Amino acid sequence: MIEHFIDIPTSDGAMNSFVVHPDSDGPHPVILFLMDAPGMREEIRDMARRVATTGYYVIASQLYYRDVREYNVFETEDRDRMFELMSHITNEMAVDDARAMIAHADADEAADATRVGTVGYCMSGPFAIMIAAGIPDQVTAAASFHGVRLAVDADDSPHRHLASITGEIYVGAAETDSYAPPEMIEEFDAAMKAAGTKGAVEWYPGTEHGFTFRERGPLYDKAASERHWERLHSLFDRNVRG
Asked: What number does CATH give the domain 2-239?
């Protein structure tokens, strides 16, 4: 595997990013692996590596780059700072960042940016959906796991932009999640069906918010996390690998 730590230029500054891809048989289709609210850390990079080993060019960026170069709530234990940083990122910013990531990949001979997939967790779940809506010509698959704010009373709510999506989407929802309650997920599901968007919403019984991450300690659910990997690989293989 080949790994790089790079700065990707955006209209708001330098977005420090981690890029990983196989060292042969390229060019590889592109995956944008979006970090969750606790911040960029080795667990995120390890998850990006897991996707890359199956034949993808994966970019995982520090989405808080407008405010900080580094942040990891598990090191600082400053949750107030985490929520402050979260509040500074809009869905529009996330789509702009995705365009910058794709532009970087498009200039790299190891990548094939004609088909792109994206996945988000927690904070970045809605980002993944909005990226699919905002860049429909290239983003052919998007997944959200225990994603927040998928259906809210706002013009940029993801559930109001589903008709723009041309690819397939997948939403994996925790059974118990105060950040993404059942009524929100059900509203998103209904909107997806009304828009005719290809994809599925699936509940993960017995799980809580953050079940995919080992670092979440007691919230981590190994069986559910492995199911999330199976669903994610299947989604990308159907729609991004080509």
From this structure: 3.40.50.1820
